[in-house]
Amino acid sequence: MASNTVSLAADAYLDDSASFKQFHLDSRLLQAIEKSGFHHPTLIQSHAIPLALQEKRDIIAKAATGSGKTLAYLIPVIQTILDYKKTQQDTEGEEEGEEGSTLGIIMVPTRELATQVSNVLGQMTLYCSNEIRSLNVSSQISNSVLNTLLSESPEIIVATPGKLVNLLEDNIKSISLKNLKFLVIDEVDLVLTFGYQDDLTKIAQFLPLKKNLQTFLMSATLNDDIQDLKKQFCRSPAILKFNDDEITKDQ
Ligand code: ADP
Ligand code: MG
């Protein structure tokens, strides 16, 4: 059954005139991108990355399956966490560390997608795996293994909303979201179709104030259902819509 289709359509969406170098990325991240064989960003990447990275905007993006949405959010997330870690190192000893708190949450509608995103995350953090550790809490591991891994305080958690809400409501002490910087909801249309709205509302109670959180809502299709989520999670998001070759930007 091919419910979990691997999409390799990104070639069709490449922004040939752009290069990943123009985003001023950490050399370890750039090296990982190059090792993956990516030379040019796709259109969604070349529009979303500077808005997220330089302008710190929240992003709502609608772009076809296979257009490269994963790196459109992962690159800004990884880069900002690397920057943050550097400032932490510089001030080490002067300020109280923020050891042990999650910096990014990536929510996806299915376990398969959680695995897929985790794999890309692993690829992109290949050269900075000490600074950025991630955990897929929706993978099939026992609770005791999960607790051990969570107690190591991974910087990024990948999860389906159902699993995340269970963990948060179970009061797992090792998940602290007080310093959370990023919230991604990938395939947000499916997240809603699968009935996760109530779980998202519960999760919202554990999050820091909206003004301290950068949010990415990504989807292949967008309809009005997203309005509630926009209000719930976003500040004043840049809305990027890619239809065929046409890009609509609402900034
Ligand atoms: P989407 O989430 O929009 O469906 P993905 O992020 O899964 O798309 O990307 C689709 C495919 O394109 C993946 O196989 C990915 O490795 C590849 N890809 C992503 N960005 C690029 C790029 N800049 N250049 C070439 N291939 C890319
Ligand atoms: Mg995707």
From TrEMBL:
Residues 18-46 form the DEAD-box RNA helicase Q domain. A motif (Q motif) lies at residues 18-46. Residues 50-240 form the Helicase ATP-binding domain. The keyword Nucleotide-binding applies. It comes from the Eukaryota. It is found in: Nucleus. One of its GO terms (molecular function) is RNA binding. Keywords: ATP-binding, Helicase, Hydrolase, Nucleotide-binding, Nucleus, Ribosome biogenesis, RNA-binding. One of its GO terms (cellular component) is nucleus. GO terms for biological process: rRNA processing. The keyword Hydrolase applies. Signal peptide: none annotated. Its main location: nucleus. Belongs to the DEAD box helicase family. DDX56/DBP9 subfamily. ATP-binding RNA helicase involved in the biogenesis of 60S ribosomal subunits and is required for the normal formation of 25S and 5.8S rRNAs. This is ATP-dependent RNA helicase DBP9. It comes from Zygotorulaspora mrakii. The chain holds residues 1 to 251 of 604 of the full protein.
